[in-house]
Known about the structure:
- By secondary structure, the chain is α+β, with helices and mostly antiparallel strands.
- The protein folds into two domains: 165 residues, D-amino Acid Aminotransferase, Chain A, domain 1, CATH 3.30.470.10; 164 residues, Alpha-Beta Barrel (D-amino Acid Aminotransferase, Chain A, domain 2), CATH 3.20.10.10.
- 26% of the residues lie in helices and 29% in strands.
- The chain has eight helices and 18 strands.
- Helix 3 packs across helix 4.
- The mean pLDDT is 95.
- It catalyses: L-leucine + 2-oxoglutarate = 4-methyl-2-oxopentanoate + L-glutamate; L-valine + 2-oxoglutarate = 3-methyl-2-oxobutanoate + L-glutamate; L-isoleucine + 2-oxoglutarate = (S)-3-methyl-2-oxopentanoate + L-glutamate.
- Its cofactor is pyridoxal 5'-phosphate.
- Keywords: Amino-acid biosynthesis, Aminotransferase, Branched-chain amino acid biosynthesis, Pyridoxal phosphate, Transferase.
- This is Branched-chain-amino-acid aminotransferase.
Amino acid sequence: MQISTTASTVAVAPERLAEILANPGFGTHFTDHMFLVEWTPDRGWHDARITPYGPLTLDPATAVLHYAQETFEGMKAYRHDDGSVWMFRPEENARRMVRSSRRLAFPELDPEDFVQAVDALVETDQRWVPDAEGEKSLYVRPFMIATETFLGVRPAQHVTFLVIASPAGAYFKGGVKPVTLWLTEEYTRAGRGGMGAAKTGGNYASSLVAQQEATAHGCDQVVFLDSQEGRYVEELGGMNLYFLYDDGRIVTPETGTILEGITRSSIMELAGKLGHPVEERRFGIDEWREGVTSGAITEIFACGTAAVVTPVGSLKWDGGDAPAPARTDLTMKLRQALVDIQYGRAEDTFGWMHRVC
């Protein structure tokens, strides 16, 4: 793409930026610029540009506001000790957005253009990438929305792809600790033939009421079961699950109706290298309950872009609970190995890291 750049005239002052980066939180501060490119059937993708960050002007009849035709990605940029800035497997995010776009009847953005767009914004706003201390990073949010002004139910004929970025602090304040889980037996996340494998906002919107249910029961996250039989574990509201057995193998729920996380696939490769073969298969909730009770399941952990890897504690449901596994050894070993690669503290033997600037 040919990308034009219009520099912000109201960029955040260095003193204020230093305050933000010292305690960035998550998703509350945004960089000085954003990336946009538009698509129409006759012109394809066009007018790629970096502009000052600011509000969008949308007609009340804009299609995305009515039919939720949108997809997004989540990824991070990391500052290494030498000052360079790197992304973690951005081409995989690009390929997943292609898959999501197909499911949402969107035009496909070429993965090379996706990575170029992300690189362009991160390089433009590289001063917003925090130092690595405390697992800080720059969270990058590419997203695609239907921007045609039209109320008919059909794929939009005007689409906009954007990239924004926000500095992020560590997911766990005060150190990593096991998350407690609530098993929802009323709500499901996705069904066969649905959008479960697409990264689209509707999947997250449908999880919110179940997350409220979990919070009301004193739990950190919600666990979803399959929609057909209500027997098989799928994923959490925003993370994938793994179960380590006493014979060293790891089981993770199979794909199809769950989101194929970038961290998920990376953990599978890392675990294999450490001598723990990973099985992708249907995993029943009874197998979970019985496994932790008998001791056959020795560790449970979850992974995602924000938390990286987190140990799982107890599982609760209406009328019962399953105890937390006794160990977190492999969980923390995998977590440290992945974080060390991301921040440049360990050799990247997988070729996962992508230098931006």
